[in-house]
Each structure stands twice: as C-alpha cells, then as structure tokens.
Amino acid sequence: QVQLVESGGGLVQAGDSLSLSCAAAISTFGSYGMGWFRQAPGKEREFVAAITGTGGRTYYGDSVKGRFTISRDNAKNTVFLRINGLQPEDTAVYYCAGTRYGTPRRQSDVHYWGQGTQVTVSS
Known about the structure:
By secondary structure, the protein is mainly beta. The chain is built from no helices and eleven strands. The protein is globular and about 40 Å long. The N and C termini lie far apart (40 Å).
C-alpha cells in the first residue's frame, strides 16, 4: 500500500504564497507520475497540476496556469506545489495523487490519493 502524506496547508490572506508538500512512501518514487487535485466546498474535485516521474514535463489545469508550479525531489520522495497570488477561489482541500502509468491528469488516472490538506484564503 502506497502512502501519500500532504502538508503545508493553512489559512492565508489573498495575495500570499504557499507551498504544499507531499511525501510518498514508495520505494520506486521516480517511476510514478505525481499530481495535485483540489476540491472546493460544493464542487467537484478538479485537476490542478501533474509532473512526470523524472520531472521533465509538467501539466496544469486551465484555472491555475501561471500561478501554480509543481516540482519534485526524487531523492526525498517528495512532490511540491507552489502557489503564488492566492485568491479566495483557491480555497479547497488539496489532494496529492500518484499513478504508476503516465501522469495523473484525470481522477481515473489516479492509483493513490493522499488524505488532503486544507487551504483557506481570506479576502
């Protein structure tokens, strides 16, 4: 069983920046595509960002392009999500996701989920 543990969420003000981390208990972390999804209250879970196993290619959801940056450190089995210019509409639970094949850009691609970390942006 693969464990993904997110951290870094919290209450921030509009315009702030935040970095989320996801630590993965996977022996072959570099072979997994990793990503982030988010779910706002009353809304469906949506794709935020994904990164290939080597970190050589990244993908972003249309609503976050330009403000979000995904990266990974395979030596530390960790994937990161940097969020700049936070807005109240970014308020959501952010979930780390992993897949054995490709990159997790749809929920159906995801093999493993983290428990989520809450990000709340006040105006």
